[in-house]
Design brief:
With 136 residues, this protein is mainly beta. The protein has a single domain, classed as Immunoglobulin-like, CATH 2.60.40.2550. 0% of the residues lie in helices and 58% in strands. The strands form four sheets. Strands 4-12-11-7-8 form a five-stranded mixed beta sheet, with no helix packed on it. Strands 1-6-9 form a three-stranded antiparallel beta sheet, with no helix packed on it. A two-stranded antiparallel ribbon has the order 2-3. It is elongated, with a radius of gyration of 17 Å.
C-alpha cells in the first residue's frame, strides 16, 4: 500500500538522482506587506511504495483552505512508480513530488493544507498569514 512519509512546505526544492534538496523546509508563517498577496510555497511530499503498487496510478491531492473553510488552491496529480532496474530491494521504493502552491491570500489567519492519497487523508500542514500593515 502506498503511503505518504514526508510532507513539507518550503521555499524551494529540487529532486535529482535520488536526492531531495530543500531550502527553508517547514514554513509556517508568511508575512506579506499587504493584501491581496500572492503566496507561493513549494509543497514537497514523499510517497513510499509497496511492490503491489508498482505500475498503478495513485491520486495525490492538496487542498489549501482558510480556517473558515474558504478554499484558496487545489492541485491533484496522478502518480505512478516503477523501480529502476538497479533498485536495491533492501531500501525503500519511493517517489518525491514537488509542486508550487500558488494562492492569493486576502486576510490574516490560519490556513491548512490537506493532503490526501487515493482519497484517504494522509497529512495536514498548517501555516499562518499575518500582514505587516503600515501604521499611520
Amino acid at each position: 500500500m502506498a503511503s505518504l512519509t514526508l510532507a513539507a512546505l518550503c521555499s524551494a526544492a529540487t529532486y535529482r538522482e535520488g536526492l531531495l534538496s530543500v531550502l527553508e523546509a517547514g514554513l509556517e508563517r508568511f508575512n506579506p506587506d499587504g493584501y491581496p498577496a500572492i503566496v507561493i510555497p513549494q509543497l514537497v511530499v514523499r510517497i513510499d511504495w509497496d511492490p503491489s503498487d508498482f505500475g498503478s496510478v495513485h491520486t495525490l491531492r492538496a487542498v489549501v483552505e482558510h480556517e473558515d473553510g474558504e478554499r484558496l488552491a487545489e492541485v491533484a496529480w496522478g502518480v505512478t512508480y516503477e523501480p529502476p532496474p538497479d533498485a536495491d530491494p533492501d531500501l525503500a521504493f519511493y517517489t518525491v513530488v514537488s509542486h508550487p502552491l500558488t494562492m492569493q491570500v486576502r486576510r490574516n489567519g490560519l490556513y491548512r493544507v490537506q493532503i490526501s492519497l487515493d482519497g484517504d487523508p494522509a497529512r495536514s500542514l498548517r501555516f499562518r498569514v499575518l500582514a505587516q500593515l503600515p501604521q499611520p
